[in-house]
Queue: 3 jobs
Job 1
Amino acid sequence: PSGVPVATVAIDGARNAAILAAEILALKYPAIKHAVADHKKDLEKAAEEKSKKLAGLGVEGYLAQKGKQDK
């Protein structure tokens, strides 16, 4: 209803729900604010590493490697 803020996350999205909750708490608690900022930096580094790996493998190489891991 109007006036009731709602935040949604995906089914099986517990990690994203936790990040959302931490971001809300970070508005009041500086220690949580710093922890969230550090976590986001770590996520950025991981995404960059994955991007480099994908660029090196190419789409077909990535899918072939992923297929081997799924077995």
Note: Residues 13 and 19 are 10 Å apart (CA to CA).
Job 2
Amino acid sequence: HGFAALFCRVFGFSEELLDPVLMANMRFQAPRPVDSSLDSSRLAGLLGIKPLPVSEGFERLRAEYSGVPGR
């Protein structure tokens, strides 16, 4: 929910559009792990890069998207 809420704030959408739910309450056809987050620290170390914070990534995406004709 935090990821989606941040997206809403950066792109100017109302967070009231979000309907938070617990993964435990979802009825998936296949089993899902409790934690499906991705740890990219090893890859970042191998490549010698530092990933952007999510908020900065969203800000850059918003800036790029605003420059698209017709938007």
Note: The chain has a mean pLDDT of 90.
Job 3
Amino acid sequence: KISGKHFVMSGTRDEEILHLINKYGGILQNDVNMRTDYVIIKDIESTSQKIKKAQIIGTSIVTVDNFKSQF
């Protein structure tokens, strides 16, 4: 599920998630763009620019807990 997918983290730098992304061939990005598959967030209430951009372009947004349970 992770291999080849592009991820952006917003408001968090969870070491476990970073390890999983690297271990299973995911690509960690700094900014949201059309290639981004998931934005991982700590706070569902956050209104960061990364989240706003992800909403505009239709990128999936998941919380840290949801990411850990999905992947």
Note: The beta strands are 6-10, 27-29, 38-41, 60-63.
